[in-house]
Design brief:
BetI_C; HTH_TetR; elongated; TetR/AcrR family transcriptional regulator; single chain; mainly alpha; transcription regulation
C-alpha cells in the first residue's frame, strides 16, 4: 500500500468513527485503531488530528462532486438540478454517511481557516452549478421568470437543512419527503 492509499484508509477510518460516534470519538488513538495502525504510525501520513479532520472534510465534498459528475452525464436544466440535489441530500446510505460527517465537521469549519476555505470553495462551486442548471431550464423553456440567485440560495439552504434534519430526525425527514420537497420547489419555478 503506498503513501496516498494509506492516507485514504486513515481518512476512511476517520469517516467511520465520525459517522458512528461523532467528532469527539475522532481522537488519534481511536483513528489509528480503526485504521489498523499504531497511534505513532499516523504521524507518517498526517501532521496531526487537525490535518486528518481537514482531509476528511475535503473528502466529503470531493466524493459528493465525483458522484454528481458521474450521475449528471449530459443532463441539463431541471433534470440536472434534480440529480445534483439528490446527490447532496441524505437519501441513501452513502449520502447519509456524508451528511453525518459534514454536520459533525461544520462546527470546526467555523473556526478552522483551512476547513472554512474548503467549505467556501465548495459552496461557491455548488451555487454556480445550480445557477447554470436553472439558466438552462429557462433556455429550454421549462422555467418562468424568477431571481436565479435567490432560487439558488433557497435551494441550497433547503438542502443543508435536509442534511441536518436527515441526520437528526430521519423518521420525519425521509428520502421520500426530501424528494417531495425538492420536486415541489422546482415545480414552483
Amino acid at each position: 500500500m503506498d503513501h496516498d492509499e494509506r492516507r485514504r484508509s486513515i481518512t476512511a477510518a476517520t469517516w467511520r468513527l465520525i459517522a458512528a460516534k461523532g467528532i469527539d470519538a475522532a481522537n488519534m488513538r481511536d483513528i489509528a485503531t480503526e485504521a489498523g495502525y499504531t497511534n505513532g504510525a499516523l504521524s507518517h501520513y498526517f501532521a496531526g488530528k487537525d490535518e486528518i479532520l481537514r482531509t476528511a472534510f475535503e473528502h466529503v465534498f470531493e466524493a459528493t462532486n465525483r458522484r454528481i459528475d458521474e450521475a449528471l452525464g449530459e443532463t441539463t436544466g431541471f433534470d440536472a438540478l434534480r440529480i445534483f440535489c439528490r446527490e447532496v441530500m441524505p437519501t441513501t446510505d452513502e449520502t447519509l454517511l456524508e451528511a453525518r460527517i459534514a454536520v459533525s465537521l461544520w462546527q470546526r469549519a467555523m473556526y478552522d481557516e483551512h476547513m472554512d476555505g474548503t467549505n467556501h470553495r465548495s459552496l461557491v462551486s455548488w451555487r454556480a452549478r445550480m445557477a447554470e442548471f436553472l439558466e438552462q431550464a429557462r433556455v429550454e423553456g421549462d422555467a418562468g421568470d424568477f431571481d436565479v440567485d435567490l432560487a439558488v440560495e433557497m435551494l441550497l439552504n433547503m438542502m443543508m437543512g435536509m442534511q441536518i434534519l436527515g441526520v437528526l430526525t430521519p423518521d420525519q425527514t425521509t428520502a421520500d419527503r426530501q424528494f417531495e420537497m425538492l420536486d415541489r420547489f422546482i415545480a414552483q419555478l
